[in-house]
Amino acid sequence: MFIVHENEKQYRFGDSGSKYLMKGPRMNFAIVQFQPGLDFKAHLHHVMEENFYILEGTVDIVVDGKVYTLSPGELIHIEPEEVHYVINNGPDVVKMISTLAPYKEVDKVDVENYTYQGK
């Protein structure tokens, strides 16, 4: 058992990116924040499934080439092998929860030159 407060951790890129509150042993749990215009490189996971639950703002999440615009209160579930890309096309900061399970230390595969059709 442990307790961690969000303020004890830092976002990966200063005021944006993932802030992992827990990494393993069975899952990852993170708060993710994106400033307007920022994105996260397209990638996939071979083993882990990923969920995003939107807390604040509106975000575009592209899964296998299809754009989904999500708002606070919505959750998107992404299966292993589904290529996904996240971009904040809105004017406000996006804040969301990310979970990844089952835990695997190295399971992220970047997808180079990713293209998709807009909305």
From TrEMBL:
Name used for this protein in its record: Cupin domain-containing protein
Pfam families named in the record: Cupin_2
Positions of the Cupin type-2 domain: 31-98
The organism's place on the tree of life at top rank: Bacteria
InterPro entries attached to this UniProt entry: Cupin_2, Flavonoid_dioxygenase-like, RmlC-like_jellyroll, RmlC_Cupin_sf
